[in-house]
Design goal:
The chain is α+β, with helices and mostly antiparallel strands. The chain contains 13 helices and 19 strands.
Length: about 425
Amino acid sequence: MNEHIGKTILVMGATSQTVPFIAKAHEMGIKVYCADYSPNAIAKQYSDYPLLIDCFDIDQLEKIVNERSIDGIILGCADVLLSPYEELCRRTGRPCYATKDLVDIFGNKKGLKVKLKEYGLPYIPEFHYDDVYSLKDSDFPLFVKPVDNCSSKGMSVCYRKENFENCVQKALNASRSRTILIEKYMVCDDISITYTFVDGNVFVTSISDRYVNREQEGVGTITTALVYPSKYTQLYFDTIHENACKMFLDLGIQNGVLTMQSFVKDGKIMFYDPAFRTTGGQGYIIYNHFGAVDQIRMLIEFSLTGRMTDDISEISRESNFGSSWAVNLVLLVNTGTIKSIKGLEEAKQVDGVINITQTHFEGDRIIGRGTLDQSLARCHIVADSKERLASSINTILDLVRVRDEEDNDMLLEQFNTAELLKNYK
């Protein structure tokens, strides 16, 4: 018998990436409230009780949770909602895997950097505002970003001193705390490390290699693909795993999920962007497919009981999915208004495709240049060899076509499968 039948949860945020939370909750017999400031947010149509409430309006949400006796609260996929999630849970007495101190570290890129230094973990070279004008031309480009936003919002590549103030203003405008970070712009390999925490036990759920699009000058990179398993898996375990786990546990993480984007250069892995939540990339779809861990079910379970699971043995201690391969393929489009999309339905039938999450539709206007607003869809694909994985990717890229109102091709440069065939054994 399902002990949660008839219970209720509140999901904070209603993007398409939160739909799996609602679907899983319904499987468990749970009714779902879903709050978002947008009346047209996609996930609301799948919820039982859509709420037109800004998730930063804690007073209103607290009133709803208490008056309707909502049993649990779930954080969606947005970094900016980590702090409201923690505060709402604290004020209503609902289980929460974050604390105020953890929000200050993992919801703030500058807070994370302080801890990396403290624990002797590698980090990206940083510059103070006043130092920039004394830098040599050879010290550029720099990367200017808000400390407390996600999805590449407010981020800029600064190639020259004369562009610096514009980059600073863009980052400040995207920061709720009006705080920015100025770092060396890194051109090197990039990986994502995802952890699952259960009662103080740390599991490395996956390590993937992140490939990016760099064709849009002046803005940050955008993900084109995450390839599993990473070619840097052993380097991670050999160099920073032990110290990273010590840092996480010393800081007080007991439960939850965490993804750390990291650069790899000169044999060093440098954490740079934390996500103390499930990510918009929906890697959990791949983890669940391979039986590694069902993060969505665990987070729902935690929201109701304060425990991720009663059986820790169900969590895989392997981070490479055996001999299997997978990719989280991101289809990127240029700015403009989408007139037509062709091939996505056919792409769902391609060998190895286990999910496609579409985030934009015909008639949508894409305005967030250099952000994940340019993501049309994410395709989760699995295979038993890199050759079969490459074949499925190429088939999808051949199928999908996107045109704007003037009939121009909107697709940006996509992931090149030659990288997959060349860089992996």
